[in-house]
Write a structure and sequence with these properties.
The chain is an alpha/beta fold and 692 residues long. 32% of the residues lie in helices and 25% in strands. The chain has 5 domains: 2-168, Immunoglobulin-like; 176-247 and 270-464, 7-stranded beta/alpha barrel; 492-555, no CATH class; 558-655, Immunoglobulins (Immunoglobulin-like, Sandwich); 658-692. The longest helix is centred in the last third of the chain and has 35 residues, at 657-691.
Amino acid sequence: MTAVLAALVVATALPFLPQAAAAAPAVEATPLTVQLTQLSPSTMPRKGRILLSGTVRNDSEEIWSAINVHPVVGRNPMTSRDQLTAAAASDPAVEIGTRLTQVGQFAAIGDLVPGQSTTFTISLKAKDVRNEIAGTPGVYWIGVHALGQNTEGRDPVADGRARTFLPLLPEDAHTSVALVLPLRERVSRDRVGKLLDTSDWSTTLGDDGRLERIAQLLGSAGGLPATMLVDPAVIDAVGSIAGNNPAVSLGTPPPGGPTETPSDTASPSRSDDRLSPVDRANAARWLAQVKAASALQTVLGLGYADPDVASLARRRPQLINLAAKESAATFKQLGVDAVPTVAPASGWLDDEALASVPDDAMVLVSDHSAPRTRTHWRTPEGQDLVFTDAQAASGGPGPTPPLDALALRQRIVSDAALRAQDGSSGPMVVELPDDWDPGADWQSADFFGGLDLPWLDLVSLGRADDSGESTPSFDAALGYPPAERRAEVPLANVSATRALVSTANAMGQLLRSTNDVQHALTGIALDAVSYHARHDESLAREQVLATNDAMQDRLGKVSVIGTDFVTLSGGSGTLTVTLVNELDQPITVGIRPRTTSADVHIQTPKPLQMAPGQRTVLRLRARASSIGVHEVTLTPVTADGTELGTPLTFSLRTSQVGRLIWGVLVGGGGLLVVMILRRIRRGIREHRWRGQ
C-alpha cells in the first residue's frame, strides 16, 4: 500500500509528459466504468462554475460500496497540437493531475451491485479549478475518478476514470472551424433492386440509431452553420425503407393489362425482412429531418454511391462523370442545392485522379495529421481543394470512446484553441469519419452549444472566391501510398458496373411509360465501384451482376420470332417475322438485321410503338445479289439502335431460278415475235409477186 501511495503522489506531482503518455502500456479494464456525458462550459471560465456530469456502472462481479466521484485537474497545459495528439493516445491509467477531495467538490453515489449504474453531477467553482492549474493559455486535463470499497477494502487508486480536455485561451484569441458531418452508409440491393439488410437499416434509422442521431444532431444546431456531406444513394435507400422496399419498377402497368411479377431469388433474411409501420415512419421522419437541415446548411454532394474515384480515374473515368450526373439528378429531385464533391473516405486521392474529376467539384482530402496553415487551395485543374484536419477529427482520450459527442467536441475545441495561437489562415476543416456515431449521450453533450463560443466562428465550407485571386494554386503532391492503390476496386468491378449501366440505358430507351428505371439501375450499378465495395469487392460485384442478369431476362421478353429457314427465289422477296412484347409496359422498338454476306440486304421499318403483350407481324423486303445460303440475325433495338431482347437467327437461301425462267420466257417470246414478223413479211412479198 505504501508503494502505491508513493507512486500516486509522484505521478500527481509530475507535469504532463506527452511522450511518456503516448508510450504507456495498456492496462486492464477497471471494475467501474465512468462516462462523462456533460462538461459545461467547454472552455475554462474566468468565474462561475464548471459542471461535470456522467454515469458510473459496476462492470465487476462484486458489490462496490461507498463510491465517491472526484474531479481531477491537470496542473500544466499542453501548448502544442502534437502534445494534444499524444495525450489523446495516452494510456488511460496515466495520472493526469490533482484529485479534488474537499467537501462539495465531489459526488457521493453510494453502492452499486454488479451491472448497476447511476448518474453523478459535480459543480465546481471556477476559482477552485484555477487554483489548481498554472493559469497560462493552453489545454488542460480535466476528468473524474471513481473510488469505492470492495471486499479487499479501500485504496487511493481509481476504480474507474474518465477524462477530457479543457482549453484556456488568451483574451485576443480568434479562429474559425468548418464542421463537415457525413451521411454515408453502404447501400446494397438484390437482383430485382430491393434494398438488402433492411434490419440494419431499421436499426440505424430507429430512435437510437446512428443515422437518426446524426439527423437529430443537425437539427440541434440552432442556426449555427455546419456542412453536410451526403451520398445521395443513402437518401434513395432510406426512401426505399419508407416505401416498404419495392423492387425496381418498369412503370405503372396500364389498366387491364398483363402483370409481370419479377422473380426474386435473394435471401429473404436480407432483402425481405418485414418492415413494420414504425420502420417506415422512422425512415420518413429521417428524410424530413435531413431535408429540413439541408435548407439551413451547406450540402456537399458526393457522387452517387460514393464512387472510388482513384480507381475509376485509372480504369474508367467516364463513370466518375456518370456518378456526378446521377447525384445531381437526385439532389435536384429533392430540391436540394448541393456542391459536387469528391471526398475519399480514406482521405487519400491520387494526384493523377484530379484530371478526371469535374472542374466544378470540391475535393476534400485529409492532411493526415500534418496540419496546414492554409486549408483551401485550387488544383492545377481548377477544382477547389480542401485539406481536412485529421487530428481534430480523431477524437478524445480513452477510456471514453474517442468519437462520442462530448469527447469529440472537446477535442475540436482544444485543437482550435491551439490553432488560434498559431496564426493559421482560413478555417480548420474537420470532416468527421464516414461511420461517425455521436453516441447514446449526444443530447447531454450539447455538441453545438459547446462550439458556440465568442472566440470561435463556426462557418460553412463553401467554394473559394470565384475570381481565384485570393486562393493560391496547390503545386505540391497529394501523395498516394501503395496500400491505397492495392485497396482500389478492381477492373472486374468496373466491368460489372459498365454491363449494368448499358442494360439500364437500354431499358430506359425501350420503355414508354413514366419511370425512373434508368436512374435506379445506374445507381445499383455504381454500388460495385463504391468506396464501400473495397471491403468486399467480390460480393458487391456479384450483386450487380445478378441485377444485370435479372434485367436482361426482362429485356429478353422483347423478341423476334419466325422460321429457321427461308428461301428467296429470284434474288428478292418478302420475309415475314413477328415482333413480340411480353412486358407489361408499352415500348418503342425496332429491328436491326445482320447477315454473314454483304450481298444480302434487308429493309426494316422505323421503330414502332407496341402495347403491353402485343405481337406485330412485319413483312421485311429482302434482296440478294448472289446465290447461296446466308445466316441472318434480326435483333430488337431501341430507337437509337441499342440492341436488346431475344433475336431471331435463321438461314436464308437465295437462288436465280426465277430469274432464269423469266429469261427463258422473255427469250422465247422474243423469238416468237421475230418468227411472226418474218412470216408476215414473207406473206406480203408473196402477195405482191402474185399481183404482178
